[in-house]
Design a protein that fits this description.
This protein is mostly helical and about 70 residues long. About 50% of the residues lie in helices and about 0% in strands. The chain has helices at about 15-25, 40-45, 50-60.
Length: about 70
Amino acid sequence: MFFSVDPANGLAIFDQIVRQVKFAVANGTLPAGELVPSVRELAKELAVNPNTVVRAYRDLTNEGILEPV
């Protein structure tokens, strides 16, 4: 997909995921109704703990950017 994380960035990894999803929605890369990768898929792709992805997705859901299916 379009996600990438950099542990040396200075931002928390879940924060990097949140920002990238917001940017993708804002510029149209991630149109409304399109599915994002599952927690397990994204965690495996980025080589991060699944709890990190859960936290990012939860924050995005609370902000109304993602909608659980």
